[in-house]
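Help wanted!
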Amino acid sequence: MSESGSEALARFSINQMTVKQLSLPELTSECVKLGIPGVGLWREPVQSYGLERTAKLMRDAGLTVTTLCRGGFLTAIDPHARVRAIDDNKAAIDEAAALGTDTLVLVSGGLPPGSKDLQGARSRIAEALAELAPYAASRGIRLAIEPLHPMFASDRCVVSTLAQALDLAERFPSSEVGVCVDTYHVWWDDQAPAQIARAGRGGRLHAFQLADWITPLPEGVLNGRGQLGEGSIDLRSWRALVEEAGYGGPIEVELFNEALWSGDGRELLSATAQNYVRHA
Amino acid sequence: MSESGSEALARFSINQMTVKQLSLPELTSECVKLGIPGVGLWREPVQSYGLERTAKLMRDAGLTVTTLCRGGFLTAIDPHARVRAIDDNKAAIDEAAALGTDTLVLVSGGLPPGSKDLQGARSRIAEALAELAPYAASRGIRLAIEPLHPMFASDRCVVSTLAQALDLAERFPSSEVGVCVDTYHVWWDDQAPAQIARAGRGGRLHAFQLADWITPLPEGVLNGRGQLGEGSIDLRSWRALVEEAGYGGPIEVELFNEALWSGDGRELLSATAQNYVRHA
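Answered by r_m:
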């Protein structure tokens, strides 16, 4: 890629899930080739490849690990399940530290089976964060609460808006807990711009992710995110909002899309980088 | 149904779409048999059966038409499309008046093709309402803006929250424009209780609908609403919220669900009435 291309990609990070058909070594070599400086990693493929081995791969290639996805799932009522969730999140924090990233993204978890109590679930997240935040800080890791689109409120994440995420985060120091703004999850929300400003004022914009919104949504709605520029989201204006709020960090592209996954991973990575330059 | 059953159904209304496999005469006779006092009607099946014929059917059976669904789709940019939309909504208002209901539900419309401008679309809804609200008032019809779940923001309804719906409604007299609260669309929103109170204070709670939230959502996400009691929504607490806000009107059950539609309509109607008594 040309020098101007490299400059245009200076803040670009590819979330590993976007090109999950690529192995970690393939992803790494392609990033180097295309001048992509950052990657967001996921725990499961990292564990499969090996934690230290992944960390070395990233270091040797000069890649920045912008985030680790993901901790969270902190809404269980059962005490044993809660202990397991805390332990698993501490492991995720340790993994983030080993990978050299400063940010662990949290997907908070949905309603426990049979429960209809969203507020209770949000309270349990706050309780869990009280234990996790200082642990994370001791490892040099910031937690980034990611509000997920309200269509995931029951089964994946009871934190549906940036306002809710900030209400949780602000119980803790900004160096410990902030938010992850993903355009796919917040684009519909006319309150989100003000909440981005609130997050910026508080130093809590810990991560920024892009995906576009396309319809029809697929069954289960998880894997229907749109390639940048192909959907309804004005990505540039969201980027401007986080930048006006003081965010100058990586811009991570995270697409879950069965159609994109069924194609060639290298071409997808290159196309995603081009669409980032064109649309974001 | 027993006398206590009839009393328990005193405010129940069945939205026609819930049991769309029933013809209008079948729906009418089953409602009479079960002691269901109200129905919410849809324009298309009413037009197929005949407007005056439907009105007579309802009157003769002593059924209250609680709402007509639906007007709206007011977000077009093209001037000709806008004129057509206004004309079509005036026709819907006339049909509502002919059916003897006082409420036309509005689904506001999604983004026009190629547009990413949610705020612009919301502004065009306000402009259209300025023309429609006095026309509706002259026919004795109230418009009820229904916020739809944010998963419909691009393709169906840019009004995603009760707050947005009230921001639009409050430009007009409460006798002309209010809101329709549907549990399926607002249940995830921690701001909705305060907005229900706001709507109640302003006399703008024009309709209340129930559906439950179940997952996984089907492809397209339109026809995956849950039978009452089978999902994540605390229906009783939402009913309590609208009643505390002063709402004493009909409680309409509106389910779109392919699995429910594939079964026997009479059994579905009876089961829905029973679930209403048990869960709402």
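OP: Thanks! One thing I noticed: Chain B has a mean pLDDT of 97.
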